[in-house]
Amino acid sequence: MDIRTITFDFWNTLAVDSAPVKVRELSAQRMMTLLKGAGINTECRNVLTAFAECRKLCYSFQEDKGIDFTPKEQMDWIMDYLGVKPEEGLWNELFDAYTTSLLDIPPGFPKGLGGVLKELRKRYKLAIICNTGRTPGWVVRSVLDNSGLKQYFDVLVFSNEVGVAKPNPYIFRIASRILNEKPENILHIGDHLLTDVAGSRGAGFKAAWYNPEEIDQKVECDLTIKDFSELLKIQ
């Protein structure tokens, strides 16, 4: 394969949410404290239910429509769900509580990932194309910076910042333009068969399915890997 650039999905590819329930509960508790301070009482289960319903809607926007349901739009939706109309100052505090818990409970990264990226960077441009969900791009950048991995990437593309989401081919084309690379010379790696594999192939990229669990399934892609070290053997 004539590969000059490698792009990676972030969630469930490069990073795995180490404690998703705790992250959501931390956000909920912080939001409830802020609401209580403003004289608004709500139960934790109601906030967590709002999170769950909002998450479903976010995935639907991304996977079915190819557009992003941004964290700010999610915050407005959650407030409507809870029947709360906060003033601007409180809204901003609630938004921070909703989106930044990942900084306190960061995701995990595969062992040896930094070493593999360091070697790949000698041969390729590297980038991330990420559907952000509830976590804005700036939070993911901070997580990457804190982990020491941000230094290996030339470009970071986040759905909440560009308004479109995988599998929409436009988000891949945005990355291609920023990287100044032809789509056919880019290999995208991700775990999700729709958003990553089908999405990248639809944009003219080559696609690698990241399958660490070795799921026995026939997938139309250019490469299947279970460990990132396999990328070092690409010819």
Keywords:
six-stranded parallel beta sheet; 235 residues; 9 helices; alpha/beta; Rossmann fold; DNA polymerase, domain 1
Question: Could you explain how this protein is built, in words?
Answer:
The chain is an alpha/beta fold and 235 residues long. It folds into two domains: 5-16 and 107-233, HAD superfamily/HAD-like (Rossmann fold); 20-103, DNA polymerase, domain 1 (Orthogonal Bundle), CATH 1.10.150. Helices cover 46% and strands 11% of the residues. It is built from nine helices and six strands. The protein has helices at residues 20-37, 44-65, 71-82, 88-99, 113-120, 137-147, 159-162, 169-179, 193-202, and strands spanning 5-8, 125-130, 155-158, 186-190, 206-210, 223-225. A six-stranded parallel β-sheet has the order 3-2-1-4-5-6. The termini are close together. The model has no long low-confidence stretch (mean pLDDT 96).
Q: What's the short story on this structure?
A:
The protein has helices at residues 20-37, 44-65, 71-82, 88-99, 113-120, 137-147, 159-162, 169-179, 193-202, and strands at 5-8, 125-130, 155-158, 186-190, 206-210, 223-225. With 235 residues, the chain is an alpha/beta fold.
Task: Please bin the fraction of helical residues.
Answer: 40-55%
CATH architecture of the largest domain: 3-Layer(aba) Sandwich
Summarize model confidence as the mean pLDDT: 96
Under CATH at level 1, the class of the largest domain stands as: Alpha Beta
Total of DSSP H or I helical runs spanning 4+ residues: 9
What is the SS-derived class? alpha/beta
Distance between the termini: 6 Å
Biggest sheet, open or closed, and with what strands and sense? Answer: 6 strands, parallel
CATH topology grouping of the largest domain: Rossmann fold
Determine Rg (CA atoms, Å).
19 Å
Q: Any low-confidence stretches, pLDDT <50, length ≥5?
A: none
**CATH fourth-tier homologous superfamily of the largest domain:** HAD superfamily/HAD-like
